[in-house]
Amino acid sequence: MENVGGGLQMLLHGDGDAGGGGVMWVDVDAAPGALVLNFGHQMEVVSNGRLRSAEHRVVTSARGARTSLATFVWPEPGCTVAPAQELVLAAGEGPLYKPHSYGEFLGAYLAEGGVKEAAMAHLKH
């Protein structure tokens, strides 16, 4: 992300952990020349909650240019998505999410009006 003006804001729930009480937007300053990656909901499942998908928005500024590139990569609807066994075993904990097809997640996400926490609740053990 080339960032001369403006920036990025992340949505935090409660005490900074997803699913908490209040909701607030927090400014995130990018270092010069920084590359910012936001992981999607299915990467949260594959990482067994270690990588958190983030709700975010861009803040623009009239002071200068900004370059952003949004790229969406997702599996076929019938593809099975589940926590990576290596991560589950290495952490000595059980999986947080049930195996599911990407189509099942997408159906729940759309049925829940695009609300991440409500859609992800369908996938939790």
Automatic annotation (TrEMBL):
Could you identify this protein by its name? Uncharacterized protein
Pfam families listed in its UniProt record = 2OG-FeII_Oxy
- Kindly list any coiled-coil regions of this protein: none
Per UniProt, the keywords (alphabetical) are: Iron, Metal-binding
Q: Name one GO molecular function term.
A: metal ion binding
Q: Does the keyword NAD apply?
A: no
The record's listing under SUPFAM superfamilies reads: Clavaminate synthase-like
